[in-house]
Amino acid sequence: MKIAVVGATGMVGQEMLKVLEEFNIQITELILVASEKSIGKQISVKGKEYSVVGLQAALEAKPSIAIFSAGGSTSLEWAPKFAEVGTTVIDNSSAWRMGQFIPLIVPEINANQLTREHKIIANPNCSTIQLVMVLAPLERQYGLKRVVISTYQSISGTGVKAVEQLENEKAGIKGEMAYPHPINQNCLPHCDEFLDNGYTKEEMKLVNETKKILHDDNILVTATAVRVPVVGGHSESVNIEFLQEYNDTELVHILENAPGIVVQDDPRNNVYPMPINAHQKNETFVGRIRRDFTQNNTVNMWIVADNLRKGAATNAVQIAEYLIENNLVD
């Protein structure tokens, strides 16, 4: 099994290498790919040193799977080239997510859609993944009418430049700004670019990707995405209105038995999900589960996950694992 990681020197790429090690996927050849400025750089994986190569060299190697985390423009240009030589591409950018014939996959929910013919597979947005992990099992039982999301997203979702901005501000150093305002001791209701409808791209990703993954354009979804001075881990306050009445105990039981979900819901003893505890974890955590007393068939909850893990690297590696286990790659 020959696997390429494109963007291996970036934050998500580095996390992908860690997850590949942890999942112990049997790889016969690992190809680490990055931009021209990183070609030749040495990276250690499982105690073995690898030299970073460029995209053309990786393409010529014809890997079975290429996991991309190198930005949308790179994915748009190179994913089809890899697909043409028989490589299955798992892309972590937003470039292919809403493509009509591109599967948008969270393995616990819809990996069974995948076939050998799918040569480009999209990894959903980080904030979408943790949301649908919780919505999907509840949707199957009660149906979904409306979902209202407020996110509290870590700066690692923006990248290294944002982490450096926070560190500089804490140290009182003037430096390059990833955001239009300070992030230290601040919250920015501004994730990605603003669109003509007043929402940001990040907010509309939550809307559109949720509907695509759950195969239901009738679900009403609205979101406000906020960047907070947390280095790792996204949190979401979610209000869910069901089509049917739900039972409180049954709802919690459904979540406790859903794959990839950990319920942490004992607020009287200060037990609830927090990003500091989700760090380096592959699961999605949910708590503060309580009935919305202002609206019928409606529940409030708090959802947390490591955005570099389940929100990106872990989900991509899980897709690769599924493809390998089900003999869906060349």
Task: Based on the model shown, name its key terms.
330 residues; alpha/beta; Rossmann fold; Dihydrodipicolinate Reductase, domain 2; 2 domains; six-stranded mixed β-sheet; five-stranded parallel β-sheet; 10 helices; 13 strands
Give a written overview of the molecule.
The protein is α/β, with parallel strands linked by helices and 330 residues long. The protein folds into two domains: 2-124 and 312-325, Rossmann fold, CATH 3.40.50; 127-307, 2-Layer Sandwich (Dihydrodipicolinate Reductase, domain 2). It has helices spanning 11-23, 55-61, 72-84, 107-110, 126-142, 160-171, 201-214, 248-256, 275-278, 309-325; strands at residues 2-6, 29-33, 42-45, 48-51, 65-68, 88-91, 120-122, 144-153, 220-227, 234-242, 261-263, 284-291, 298-305. It has a six-stranded mixed beta sheet with strand order 9-8-10-13-12-11. The chain has a five-stranded parallel beta sheet with strand order 2-1-5-6-7, sandwiched between helices. A two-stranded antiparallel ribbon has the order 3-4. Strand 12 and strand 13 form a beta hairpin. The longest helix is centred in the middle third of the chain and has 17 residues, at 126-142. The termini are close together. The model has no long low-confidence stretch (mean pLDDT 97).
Concise account of the structure shown:
The chain has helices spanning 11-23, 55-61, 72-84, 107-110, 126-142, 160-171, 201-214, 248-256, 275-278, 309-325; strands at 2-6, 29-33, 42-45, 48-51, 65-68, 88-91, 120-122, 144-153, 220-227, 234-242, 261-263, 284-291, 298-305. It has 330 residues and is of the alpha/beta class. The chain has 2 domains: 2-124 and 312-325, Rossmann fold (3-Layer(aba) Sandwich), CATH 3.40.50.720; 127-307, Dihydrodipicolinate Reductase, domain 2.
